[in-house]
Structures are given as structure tokens and as C-alpha cells.
Amino acid sequence: MRKIIIGTALVLATTVLTGCGSDDSPATVGKSANANASGKPQPDAGSGESKHEVTLEVLGTGTSQVYYNLDTNKMEKVTLPWKKTSTITLTTDAEKRAGLSVSVVPGSVSGPDGMLHAAACVITVDGKKVADNQGGKSDKMCQYKVK
Questions:
Q1: Is residue 50 within 8 Å of 14, Cβ to Cβ?
Q2: Which residues contact 15 (CB under 8 A, 6 or more apart)?
Q3: Cα 114 to Cα 79: distance, rounded to the nearest angstrom
Q4: Predicted TM-score (pTM) of this structure
């Protein structure tokens, strides 16, 4: 239980800190370099959007709590195996440089020895596996920065 709480805290801290860099030049202090008159972020001129299909998976059987950060942040009780797919769109140069953090914190499942263990998790981006927790053996969450 302690590992899940620590993992969740790490995910929340990563979510808060991701993309918090700034350009401190005098022309941009206090405003976004990619904001229009309404203050809403706009795609960088000429750079285009970068879209990526991201899939989070938690493997195993039974039910478990899962915390994920994808297109939304959510904790829910799910039936395993569980999968969530979303398209992540990076629109600014800052997002493309720093990346957008996606993650999944798997809950505990009963192992063959009857003990509780972290469930296995996997993240794939555009069909390529980019993160896993070695079948739950590392007792860690799965996390990746989409760039």
C-alpha cells in the first residue's frame, strides 16, 4: 500500500512539474510566447501538430485500483486486463521539446504465492512499447514522456 501511495505522489508531482519551464526573456515574461490576445495557447506558426497514439495497459486477472495520467488524470477500480488508448496532440514547440508525461500506477494483485504484488503495466506509443515494470517485478509505475 505504501508503494502505491508513493507512486501516486510521484505521478502527481511529475504531472505538476511537467512543462513548467519558461522563456525568461523580457519580451515573454508574464505571457505565453504562443498566446493570442485572449491568452489562449495557439500552435506555433509553421511547426504543425504532432499526434501520438498512446496506450496504457495493466495486466493480470481480477480487479485492481489503477491511477493514470493520459488525456485525464483518474483513479478507478478496474477489471484486469485493462487498457486505455488516447491520441495525445503536442501543439507547441515547448511541448515537443520537454515532452508530455503519461503514466499508469498499477494496483496490487494476488500473485501465485498468494501474496499481493504490483500488477504488470505497459505503455505503448504509436505501437512501440516504451515503458513497462518488468511484469510487476519492479513494483514501480510505468511512465514515459511523449515528445
A1: no
A2: 69, 73, 101
A3: 19
A4: 0.67
